[in-house]
Every structure is written in C-alpha cells, then in structure tokens.
C-alpha cells in the first residue's frame, strides 16, 4: 500500500494527529490514506463523551477496549483519525467532535465539505 501525498485540507503538509493512542490507517499517528483505505480515515478529531456514545449507538464502538487487537479504547480528549463519512454523519446529527484542520487529510474533502470541517475546527484561526 502506498500512501497518498500527505497534504491537509489547508493545502499544507499534513501534521500529526496523535500517538497516544497511535492513530491513522497506517498506525503512524497521521491521517494518511490510500486507495485501500475504504473507510477514508482522514478526519483528525478529538473525542468527546457525546461522540463516543453516539458512535457506539450507531454501531462503531470506539470506547470499548479490544486487547486482542492492542486497542485500549478511546476516551474523551483522545485524538483519532475518524472515517470521514462517520464524521459527516455525526455532524448532521449535531454531535460531531472538534477537528484539527492541519492534521485532517485533503482526501476528507471527497466526503466532507470544508465548511463543515471549519465549523468544527478546534482553532478557528486554522485556514
């Protein structure tokens, strides 16, 4: 698998999303993607209790530990490369987490409009 270019939604080099826990499709801390990333794990979001509960409710449990996969489960405050479609779904439902635009991959724009990402940006001065 060859990653796409590491460019963020601001057309700048992609910055790291998080390493504790290690996130990203390639588990390198970045929201890099490639053709094989069918979930488009491209939106760097900071987990909230509300989003984690919502995600579990819609069938994508990110909070329960899965030791067999080396996954401790996410908690509020953890950064994570979310599936772009899951983020957009949560935004439509009014419970999307905040996002780091500089760490959100350009390919997120294939699914999520930039305006929606900006509406949830942690730092409103990004971009």
Short account of what is shown:
This is DUF2237 domain-containing protein. This protein is α+β, with helices and mostly antiparallel strands and 127 residues long.
Write structural notes for this entry:
By secondary structure, the chain is of the alpha+beta class. It contains three helices and three strands. The protein has helices at residues 49-57, 84-93, 114-119, and strands at residues 41-46, 79-83, 98-99. It has a three-stranded antiparallel beta sheet. The longest helix is centred in the last third of the chain and has 10 residues, at 84-93. It is globular.
List keywords for this structure.
single chain; 127 residues; alpha+beta; 3-stranded antiparallel sheet; globular; DUF2237
What would you call the shape?
A: globular
Q: Report how far apart the termini are.
A: 30 Å
Helix and strand sequence: EHEHEH
- Walk across the major sheet and give the strand order: 2-1-3
Structural class: alpha+beta
Mean of residue pLDDT values: 93
Can you give the helix content as a percent range? 10-25%
Radius of gyration of CA atoms, rounded to a whole number:
13 Å
Spans of at least 5 consecutive residues whose pLDDT stays below 50 are none
| Number of strand elements | 3
**How much strand content do the residues show?**
5-15%
Helix count, per DSSP? Answer: 3
Largest sheet: 3 strands, antiparallel
């Amino acid at each position: 698998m060859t990653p796409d270019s590491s460019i963020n939604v601001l057309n700048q080099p992609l910055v790291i999303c998080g390493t504790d826990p290690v996130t990203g499709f390639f588990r390198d801390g970045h929201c890099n993607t490639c053709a094989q990333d069918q979930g488009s794990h491209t939106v760097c979001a900071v987990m909230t209790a509300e989003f984690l509960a919502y995600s579990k409710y819609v069938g994508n449990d990110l909070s329960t530990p899965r030791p067999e996969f080396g996954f401790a489960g996410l908690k509020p405050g953890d950064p994570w490369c979310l599936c772009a479609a899951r983020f957009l779904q949560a935004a439509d439902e009014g419970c999307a987490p905040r996002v780091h635009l500089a760490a959100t991959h350009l390919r997120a724009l294939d699914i999520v409009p930039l305006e929606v990402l900006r509406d949830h940006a942690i730092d409103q001065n990004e971009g």
